Amino acid sequence: MSYSRQLADFIVRTRYEDLPDEVAAFTKLCILDWLGSALAGTVTLPVRMIDELAKELGGSGQATLVTGGVSSVTHAALVNGAASHVVELDDIHKASIIHAATVVIPAALAVAEWKRKSGKELITAVAIGYDVCFRIGEAVSPSHYRYWHNTATCGTFGAAAAAAKLLELDEQQIVHALGNAGTQAAGLWEFIVDGAMSKQLHTGKAAMNGLLAALLAQKGFTGPSRILEGERGFFRAMAESCDETRIVDGLGSTFKIMENSFKIHASCRHTHPAVDLALKLRRERGIGPQEVRRIRVGGYQSVLSITDNPDPQTVYAAKFSLQFCVALALVKGRAGLADFSEEILHDPEIRSLMERVELALDPAVDAAYPDRWGSSMEVETEQGEKLQLVADYPKGDPENAVTAADLTEKFHLLSAHLPKEERQRYVDLVMGLEGVSDLTQFWNEGSRVS
Fold first, then answer.
1. Under 8 Å CB-to-CB from 256, ≥6 apart: which residues?
2. Fold exhibited by the domain 3-264+407-448
3. Closest alpha carbon to 28 in 333, 354, 350, 442
4. Can you say whether the dihedral through the CA atoms of 133, 138, 140, 144 is positive or negative?
């Protein structure tokens, strides 16, 4: 059996009743965490542009846009996928290097609203979508990640899987859906050089393309049956090395959504271990920026490739500058959404400290990646003292977990522009999702006003 066929069998046969209680409960937390990021992202310039274009292109009133109004399910997936990634607070899976929520949930929720599915059906589809994209991401990581944004590429498969489950596709149709998801998989890291807006296009299109693949499959549109392992398929074309066993290892018995991590800092996840250490240095050691002569951060190769930017010129670029994020954490004692602003970007104290932050490859940290996204930090003070700190797991990893209360508080912070009663309604609805019979109830009434 091809890998697509085995995944299709898993998608077809998995029901809500097959999910352990802890998986269903955890999936609801992932949905709430996604929603907070999506609501926060609606006010950003890239999302406003995508939203404007979606409304210009038009579309039938099938599903709600988080930005307000309704459109086609594909446009809802596009806009909501972009909105939920832009503030850099969406979830992440270490081994696959994928932000699954931002691609899986927009596709799933659009279909669930359109087809009036239940909360249980949405939970099941989301858990399945996470499982599929995580497995494919693990198979090709870390070599695929050198050029390709895993969330965009592997995430397309997850969106297709979740949509296929909600559309009640049969096994053969799902094989076609996965095939055409894979042939659309794209997303190159070159945008990082310019701090361009492409990263939001990546997630919006991955959600949209996965959904499109499932909708076409429902009509009988065929796709390659061996898109993953074929001679001209995904593995051979897009990874120098891969471990195909990751696709089916524990398939159906181990739900990989439970390995998911949550973000508490509003920056690239690769900066988080070092940010945690800078916060520890400030809070536990009482070291302030004026006392620092030099900070040497040791990271894995992806940290150097993606976050080594000693002079970011935009707020968005600052989120991908380890030097900025470490200095921000030590100066301000936090790295939240409000801390990434034009004023703080040019803060003289932060800029001065950035000049004293060095980044280098740490072989031990690199060897542990991607199972552990760690960091080492050597700090030399003005008094000549040398401090050594190490972090194996950033805050929010399963090994260094946040609580449901933490994530609820995070949601309220990200959606603070909404009235308190609206925010609480979303929390109550998501946390009681298994009791919702019709997901046209999901969005606040105001969201459906065009």
1. 93, 130, 131, 134, 135
2. 2-methylcitrate dehydratase PrpD (1.10.4100)
3. 442
4. positive
Q: Which residue has the higher pLDDT, 73 or 285?
A: 73
Measured in degrees and rounded to the nearest 5, phi and psi for residue 389 equal -130, 150
Kindly give the interhelix angle for 420-431 and 404-414, rounded to the nearest 10 degrees. Answer: 140
pLDDT tens digits for range 299-336: 999 999 999 999 999 999 999 999 999 999 999 999 99
pLDDT tens digit sequence for 31-53: 999 999 999 999 999 999 999 99
Give 428-440 as a DSSP string. Answer: HHHHTGGG-S-GG
- The mean pLDDT value for 374-398 works out to 96
Question: With contact defined as beta carbons under 8 Å apart, do 166 and 112 qualify?
Answer: yes
Which residue type sits at 171? Answer: E
Burial class (CB in 10 A: 0-12, 13-18, 19+), 299: buried
List, by residue range, all CATH 1.10.4100.10 domains of the chain: 3-264+407-448
E strands, 168-238, where? none
Which pLDDT belongs to residue 444?
81
Q: What region does 384 belong to: left with phi over 0, alpha with psi -120 to 50, or beta?
A: left
The residue among 70, 6, 134, 126 whose CA lies nearest residue 440 is 70
Could you tell me where in the chain the CATH 3.30.1330.120 domains are found? Answer: 269-391
Percent of the chain, pLDDT > 90? Answer: 97
Contact partners, residue 367, CB within 8 Å, separation at least 6: none
The two three-digit tokens of residue 288, written as one number: 């302030």
Q: Tokens 């949209």 label which residue? A: 208
pLDDT tens, residue by residue, 79-137? 999 999 999 999 999 999 999 999 999 999 999 999 999 999 999 999 999 999 999 99
The pLDDT of residue 445 is: 64
**CATH 3.40.50.1820 is held by the domain 269-391:** no
**Cα 394 to Cα 159, 262, 306, 375, distances in angstroms:** 27, 9, 17, 9
Question: What's the CA gap between 399 and 395, in Å, rounded?
Answer: 8
8-state DSSP, 388: E
**Among 45, 87, 53, 86, CA closest to 71:** 53
Quote the pTM value.
0.94
Which secondary structure element, helix H or strand E, spans residue 375, and what is its range?
strand 375-381
